[in-house]
Specification:
The protein has 368 residues and is α+β, with helices and mostly antiparallel strands. The protein has two domains: 122 residues, Serine Threonine Protein Phosphatase 5, Tetratricopeptide repeat, CATH 1.25.40; 175 residues, no CATH class. Helices cover 49% and strands 9% of the residues. Helix 3 packs antiparallel against helix 4 and helix 5 packs across helix 6. It starts with a helix and ends in a 6-residue tail after the last helix.
């Protein structure tokens, strides 16, 4: 490992007192576990160290600790075949130490592969999306007007931005309402059940949600689609502004390691469609070929071009819902003619995070 990493870790070890079960003790223990290839144990110790230094009294040390935590997590994850998570951790580390390099003689091939892929991503994500690096600041300063806030209680209210909050039971009840008065009553009760401070005149939950809707409608509109109903709008409604945003052109060779990465359908979609077609026993070879082509043939794959873009929203752990087992989750939005504009790539970490966010927001409702 190069001198800059050694200096960082040495200063961290000095900053954290080495007493029994102290952060310093945990840090040294994690290092030894990584050195002796006890990867799972190292991750457990690193989680304990992370938790032990979340107290405000360790605020100064956290600035040094975060890159070190990310580094040792990345090494452990890479050797446990958790390559994607390892790359994300190495990117966190490289953000703090962009010129770092590793000695191949000291680290496994899995570690070096994940590190080099992370380096490549850091180099290629060098073009920030116009106006987007300050997305959190823009949202903080955003003041929606009263005219754009509340959707009217029309029959399509449940198809609007609020759909990310609706449970199956909510949708069933709404579909049974047939007049404006009953819909208005439903909406009033819906928001009242989510009011964190019912004793005050304001409903902070509703205000924050409607602010997100208004912000998304202003900045993420796509053609005739309102911003809050786009993929970026949906992510924004559920998670709020990301830690940071980057944009880069899609280049030849992107996603060659992941055949799913730039597909408009899932890898099992063809199998599911064919199974459905054969269930009745009347399908023909021509029909099956047609289904397969629609699911995985030309038109469902994206070729690379300098005019095509990937926008990436990075969410660090402090912005993720509790229970999400990742230190960072990246949401990728692909733009390409014939494919779509800012289409969310629905990988497992992204979908799990969005589901956790939905559950968190829906849980805000008090029992009626």
């Amino acid at each position: 490992m190069k001198k800059n990493l050694g200096f960082l870790l040495l200063s961290l070890a000095i900053a954290l007192p080495a007493v029994a079960e102290s952060p310093g003790e945990l840090f040294q223990k994690a290092k030894e576990q990584v050195k002796s290839a006890r990867w799972k144990e190292a991750l457990t110790t690193l989680d304990a160290l992370d938790a032990a230094t979340r107290d405000p009294g360790f605020a100064a040390q956290r600035k040094q600790l975060d890159p070190a935590l990310a580094f040792y997590r990345a090494v452990s994850m890479a050797n446990l075949d958790r390559s994607d998570e390892a790359q994300a951790q190495f990117q966190i580390y490289l953000t703090a130490t962009p010129n770092a390099s590793l000695d191949r003689a000291m680290y496994t091939k899995k570690t070096m592969d994940a590190f080099e892929k992370a380096q490549k991503m850091m180099v290629r994500t060098d073009e920030p999306a116009p106006g987007m690096p300050s997305l959190a600041t823009s949202y903080r300063d955003f003041r929606p007007t009263d005219a754009v806030l509340t959707d009217p209680p029309g029959e399509r209210w449940a198809d609007g931005p609020v759909k990310v909050l609706l449970t199956a039971d909510d949708k069933r009840q709404w579909s049974g309402l047939t007049d404006p008065a009953s819909r208005s009553e439903f909406i009033t009760k819906f928001w009242a059940a989510r009011d964190p401070k019912p004793e005050t005149p304001d409903n902070e939950f509703r205000q924050d949600f409607e602010k997100r809707v208004a912000f998304a409608d202003k900045y993420f509109v796509q053609g005739e689609t309102r911003g809050s109903l786009t993929d970026r709008g949906m992510v924004f409604l559920l998670l709020g502004p990301p830690t940071y945003v980057g944009r880069k052109p899609l280049a030849t060779g992107d996603d060659v390691s992941d055949s799913q990465g730039m597909s408009s359908v899932g890898r099992h979609d063809a199998d599911i469609a064919i199974a459905g077609a054969t269930a009745g026993g009347k399908s023909t070879t021509s029909n099956l070929n047609s289904i397969s082509d629609r699911s995985s043939g030309p038109g469902t794959r994206m070729t690379d071009s300098a005019a095509n873009w990937r926008e990436v929203w990075h969410y660090r752990r402090e912005l993720l819902p509790s229970g999400v087992p990742y230190q960072q989750v990246d949401f990728e939005f692909i733009t390409r003619k014939g494919y779509g504009t800012n289409v969310l790539q629905r990988d497992s970490p992204a979908l799990a995070t969005l589901d956790a966010a939905r559950q968190k927001l829906r849980a805000a409702a008090r029992p009626s």
